[in-house]
Design a protein that fits this description.
The structure holds two protein chains of two kinds. Helix content of chain A is about 35%, strand content about 10%. Chain A is α/β, with parallel strands linked by helices. Chain B is mostly helical. Among the domains of chain B are: about 160-270, no CATH class; about 335-450, no CATH class. The chains are: A alpha/beta, B mainly alpha.
Chain lengths: ~425, ~450
């Protein structure tokens, strides 16, 4: 699929065969499915099972990138081909540099050079006018929903990706200290962050393990941290001597200025590559970045939003270069999501207040890229949600369902019953190859 | 329950740990109740006076406007002095329950230097807007927090103008006269403070309430109109920025002018959703991640019947049977862990020997730089990632190597943990290879990590 003119209906493609297979299974009662999915929980993800048995590196990889604070989807992926765009956006439509053209009416923020190169290579797709089944504009409720995967905030207390992975140990890793909600639940999840302190002695660790017999949560955390380090941690501070740094340098971009220096997200993306390329190791990695709540001064070319987009661009470039060098890019999907979009119009302080519809990106060799998938709702006030926000015409859970089923091979019945309950009627999207 | 088990709970669950439980005396509830009141004043090294809001604003502005190395150094020193004062006060106070309440409210009303305009103001915010007000009426605390320059800047009210205010009209006239200069940069409202004032500070987000609601009860129109009420509140009230006319929020009318802030703060503080929201957060912070709903009911009822008298609410909390249940299920935050370690070892200022934050940033809690206006997480599972636990072990091992050779960890474990000390922990400490290792085991024991 290529250009999507405004008011296109690219979501009307027929559901893929897998979705129909699920419907054929409708004769099985819900209770039976639940029982089955419980039995399958340890290895229900077929790609993972293959990894565990063959210890090969040819199975699927998933990288989730959560942008916290509400990325303005219309700033990252403007729609200059929509005749109402410049009026609706006002000063926000002025980027101070040429936008990078995409197919149809869409374009990219000038800071997203590597994203643009991936799009042109057919390895990055954008879903626009997308969002969660939630319209109330609270960061914290929307993030809870983004990660829990329910219909309403707080109705589910674990993460949808953790439920998809099931009890498999060592499959998922968050590149930070804490386990985010997305990965909390039945899965035993690793976390990892660069440290400047020397490792504690093995002797102390052994004694702590004995002491933690009385506290299973502390014991589990310590066991996982030890196992990670026993497998050899990628060099935290030695980036300069790592071939990763050379790969992280944007090949397509012009000479990097200080503002384009790879930030922390890029460093963590480099570590994610290392973990994802270990045989039998991490298959799902999570990166997150805050600072997207641009209530003020969003338009400044050297402001926070442009800087954040450059950081995101650098991290995606690092994931691409690193995973391609390891021969894994073709099996990879990177999903970039945020909790909500922002209001269409500029607010009183050269920024945007909280909104609803926004955009998501998928990158990777497994992605059917070079397309912007959207049932474009238009930007004039009457087309906006409550006269204010980009209207959501694609449920973000359709994206998740597609990646879960087509990429991670999670059975549809489990997705409907356990992973994204209530999302059953939503169609899969033509976002992946194969 | 024996008095000493109660003493251990008082010390760890409501306080910041004590090296010797006998200091708590025979009536741990009375020990806690006697501490309720404004938090201890913070002081710099040797009792030096710390800067107030006006000093901090001046240093902040000099650093940004002059852009000189001296200005930047002055601002950095101020920020570090605030960090030191926060940790040193908590590490040495004789009223650790009051300190815990101050930390709770500072987190409830988060401001963060991750916003550039707030740099240097977080310490004065805590000293002037939070610490003096933690045991008075909630409305007074709320009012002080919302109108402090740090909060007004952090949540963008500094830059929010009424669409029909004098400043916006002036800018539009100027722009019409000189079209080449471009459109005005300031045209109207910024909703940030209004939304978080409702969602985080008072009524709560309806869906988040779970078994503890109802919370919430506002819509987008209330947010926008509240933003209009709040216009003009910059470092102080500036009438040129204020939206003229009356406004309706949550079905009530508010007149034009600065006095509307007092009126709306008072109404929000009395709202039943606020009582339930605050009651839930207190119970979750001090008792359990999923507290008994009956306890939340009692706290909310007391909040409402006393018109938000926080001292009365704390008294219910401290005397509730649910507050004294075993086992300890909450996990100390990294800050609580660091401070209770310092108290255990009577480190005082030596805690800060290696930098103003005592190594907290390496444990995922960069103080005064909270990543979100919702504050630091308060539930055990959010601090229990493998990496987070590993970082605590690294920190404990390093501190123990530094100070542990002269410490009798066996004696300290018994005096600080009392009946909470498990046989297995005692056995491991007894058998440690050396004194520093014994101390690291004590610091990382489940009994010392949980509260």
């Amino acid at each position: 699929m290529d250009a999507n003119p405004p008011k296109s209906s690219s979501l009307q493609s027929p559901p893929p065969p897998d979705a129909l297979a699920c419907a054929a299974a409708a004769g099985v009662s819900r209770r039976e499915w639940l029982a089955r999915s419980t039995a399958l929980a340890a290895g229900a993800w077929a790609g993972l099972t293959a990894a565990a048995t063959a210890a090969s590196s040819v199975d699927a990889r998933l990288v989730m990138v959560i942008l916290r604070g509400g990325l303005d989807g219309l700033a990252a992926v403007p729609v200059p081909g929509d005749p109402t765009f410049s009026v609706a956006r006002g000063a926000l439509a002025d980027y101070g540099a040429p936008m990078l053209p995409l197919s149809g009416p869409y374009a990219l923020h000038p800071a997203l050079g590597q994203v643009h190169a991936l799009y042109q290579a057919g390895e990055l797709a954008i879903v626009h006018a997308t969002g969660l089944p939630y319209r109330e504009r609270s960061h914290f409720e929307a993030q809870q929903l983004l990660e829990s995967g329910g219909m309403r905030p707080h109705e589910l207390g674990s993460g949808w990706l953790a439920r998809a992975i099931g009890g498999s140990r060592g499959t998922a890793m968050a590149l930070q200290s804490a386990v985010p909600l997305l990965l909390r639940g039945p899965a035993e999840v690793d976390t990892w962050a660069p440290s400047v302190l020397p490792d504690p002695s093995q002797d102390l660790l052994g004694r702590l393990e004995m002491m933690y017999a009385a506290d299973p949560a502390l014991r589990a955390a310590l066991d996982r941290a030890r196992a990670l380090r026993a497998a050899g941690v990628p060099p935290p501070m030695g980036m300069a001597s790592s071939p990763m740094l050379a790969m992280a340098a944007p090949a397509a971009a012009s000479t990097p200025s200080p503002a384009q220096r790879p930030g922390l997200l890029t460093v963590l993306a480099g570590h994610a590559v290392e973990f994802l390329s270990r045989p039998g190791g991490t298959r799902v990695a999570l990166l997150e970045m805050g600072g997207w709540d641009t209530h003020a001064n969003q338009t400044a070319p050297q402001g926070a939003l442009a800087g954040n987009l450059r950081a995101l661009d650098g991290a995606l470039g690092t994931l691409h270069a690193g995973l391609a060098a390891k021969g894994l890019w073709q099996r990879t999907v990177v999903v970039v999501v945020t909790e909500f979009g922002r209001q269409v119009a500029i607010n009183g302080t050269q920024g945007t207040d909280h909104g609803t519809g926004g955009m998501a990106m998928l990158a990777g060799g497994a992605v059917r890229g070079g397309q912007v998938l959207a049932d474009w709702p238009g930007l004039s006030p009457k087309d906006r949600f409550e006269g204010r926000d980009l209207r959501i015409t694609t449920d973000l859970r359709s994206v998740f369902r597609t990646v879960l089923h087509r990429h991670l091979e999670v059975p549809m019945a489990r997705i409907d019953a356990d992973v994204l309950p209530g999302s059953g009627p939503l169609p899969l999207l033509p976002l992946l190859r194969g | 329950m024996s008095a000493t088990t109660q003493a251990a709970h008082a010390a760890h669950r409501f306080g910041l740990g004590e090296p010797d439980l006998s200091t708590i005396g025979t009536d741990p509830q009375a020990w806690l109740l006697s501490q309720i009141g404004p938090a201890d004043p913070q002081a710099g090294p040797g009792g030096a006076r710390l800067h107030g809001t006006e000093d901090a604003l001046k240093i902040h502005q000099d650093a940004r406007r002059l852009a000189s190395p001296e200005g930047r150094d002055a601002l950095r020193e101020l920020i570090q002095a605030d960090l030191r004062a926060r940790l040193a006060t908590a590490a040495t106070t004789r009223r650790p329950f009051a300190e815990r309440l101050a930390l709770f409210w500072a987190n409830h009303f988060t401001v963060s230097l991750l916003k550039g305009t707030v740099r240097g103001l977080v310490g004065t915010f805590e000293r002037e807007a939070i610490r003096p007000h933690i045991a008075g009426r909630f409305a007074e605390l709320l009012s002080a927090a919302v109108r402090h320059p740090a909060m007004l800047r952090y949540l963008d009210n500094q830059r929010s103008a009424g669409p029909n205010s004098r400043i916006v009209e002036r800018l539009q006239r100027r722009s019409a006269r000189a079209p080449d200069a471009g459109a005005p940069r300031l045209t109207g409202l910024n909703e940030n403070l209004a939304r978080e004032l409702l969602e985080l500070h008072t009524l709560g987000a309806a869906h988040a309430a779970g078994a503890y609601g109802p919370w919430g009860g506002y819509n987008q129109a209330d947010v926008t109109r509240l933003a209009a009420v709040l216009t003009g509140w910059r470092d102080t009230f500036d009438a040129d920025w204020h939206e003229p006319g009356e406004k309706w929020v949550l079905g009530r009318r508010y007149a034009e002018g600065p006095q509307a802030l007092d009126a709306i703060v008072s109404d929000l503080a009395r709202h039943p959703s606020t009582a339930r929201h605050i009651a839930t957060k207190l119970a979750q912070h001090f008792c359990a991640d999923r507290p008994d709903p009956e306890l939340v009911n009692r706290l909310a009822t007391r909040f409402t019947e006393t018109d938000g008298d926080l001292t009365a609410v704390y008294r219910v909390l401290v005397t509730a049977p649910q507050a004294w249940q075993t086992p300890e299920t909450k996990l100390k935050t990294p800050e609580e862990f660091v401070v209770s370690s310092a108290r255990l070892l009577r480190l005082g200022d030596r805690l800060l020997g290696r930098g103003p934050d005592a190594g907290l940033a390496a444990m995922g809690q960069r103080l005064h730089a909270t990543p979100s206006p919702a504050g630091w997480p308060d539930r055990a599972e959010e601090w229990l990632g493998p990496e987070a636990v590993w970082q605590r072990i690294e920190w404990a091992a390093r501190l123990s190597d530094r100070v542990g050779s002269g410490v009798d960890a066996r004696r300290l474990a018994a005096s600080a943990l009392g009946p909470l000390l498990r046989d297995e922990t005692r056995r491991q400490i007894d058998r440690a290879a050396d004194a520093p290792q014994a101390l690291a085991l004590l610091l990382m024991s489940p009994e010392f990590q949980r509260r």
